[in-house]
Sequence to fold (94 residues):
Amino acid sequence: MQSGSVLAPSSIRTKEQSNELNMDMLNSLGCRGNASELIECLNTLDPVTATTQAENYFYSKSTNGYTIPFAPIVDNFFIDDEPINLFKRGKFKK
Fold:
């Protein structure tokens, strides 16, 4: 929460954006299909190789050096609006 980082557009995304980004990353690892097929595929991968490939994937998607792989999402429950809107309404930890 330092330096206004929570208000940066890249610090949060929608569920749809997160799902699309993560499915694309899984596809780049060679994993495709429904949830159980994805889990089965991920279980066959070497963890070090998969982590390295995932990091390279997120780095390649970045416009400023790195894309936050697993950013918080506006889920209308835990985070119920964009941080900038919550900030403007004074809905933040003081």
In short: Strands lie at 13-14, 73-74.
